[in-house]
Specification:
By secondary structure, this protein is α/β, with parallel strands linked by helices. It has 15 helices and 12 strands.
Amino acid sequence: MEGEKTVCGRDLYPENGICDKSGMYREIGARCLAFAAVLLLVLAPGLPAMAAQNPGQDVTINVYNWGEYIANGTDGSLDVNAEFTRRTGIKVNYTTFDSNESLYSKLVGGGADYDVIIPSDYMVSRLIDENMLAELDFSNIPNYQYVDDSFRNADYDPQGRYSVPYTWGVVGLFYNTDYIQEEITSWSSLWDDRYAGKILMFDNPRDSFAIAQFLLGQSVNTVEESDWQEAAALLKQQKPLVQAYVMDKIFDKMESEEAWIAPYYAGDAAILVDNSDNIRFVVPKEGTNYFVDAMCIPATSRHKAEAEAYINFLCDPEIAGANMDYVGYSTPETAAKAYMDPEMVESPVHYPDEEILASTQVFVNLPEDTAKLIDKLWAEAKMGGPGESAVLVAIILGFLALYIGILVYKRRKRKRELA
């Protein structure tokens, strides 16, 4: 009925104890808002921490890594990316590259949208110099505490602000003992004409030039043009003996016995050695490259907190141990070894002795003019030198001139016939 009243509690309403329903609802609503405000004041200090623990769970991060370089669930291994998603809700779009140079080309091209990348030491240095990396917030990467001191503040990232080491290792030679009976001890084996057509080489300039430089007794970081010219001349001499310049395909070619000898990174060599009775690995007597691959975040990343959560996850000793067991590379975390196969931890391929490590050199970023010289000399070396490329151009121009001559002759002939 119109004017009907509802009796309400004395503590809430006027002295007569009478109120209408709308007044009651307004009072209840006001009290709820007041309670919510008090609750917000109490919880507000903890909200940033809660957000940091669970960054963007509906986000997908783009991870760009080397091929065959993370445990993916095959052969009973841990599926690292799937486990990260299960724990955090953050999805991972995972793609691969085959050389530092191809990674760099993607980044400078501007079309790439990556949140985590894993370049090698000298490329990390180059990306820092060119302001292409974001400075890391280590409060989001507490598992960095497990990285050994010897891997922190390295030459490629002196202040340790832009990278977290992922793996390390050395470069060596692996070869098939069914076809090469003598013991291999030197990089010069890659110039042995007895293995012509069965030799593989790195399809990137720094690693390939380094092999020639170790043979020549040079520094792999020389800035002398004459040194690079001398190393390039040696690579040009090798060119007729090389079956192919490859990266990840080294696996297939060595396993199928299509190739007999190849340089590569120790972690991958160890997998081949474990899977094949006839493949051996050696670090040549002239010395070799010691490398570190590190996790970084591009300056263009749109999901930096989630990317840092991913790096932190990979630094968890249990995750790192399971991951390294699969990829076969050496870990920069002593704590991770407790979760790894003891045979791998004790393997001289994965963890070379001090004598071998003492003969290694680490790549650093080189001046721009030196880098351009290397690119030029590398292109010439793969072509067999400027002489061969000049001959090729001359042949093409010769065929073009002949073709034009035939066309001119036919036109003149037709004109005479019509006349």
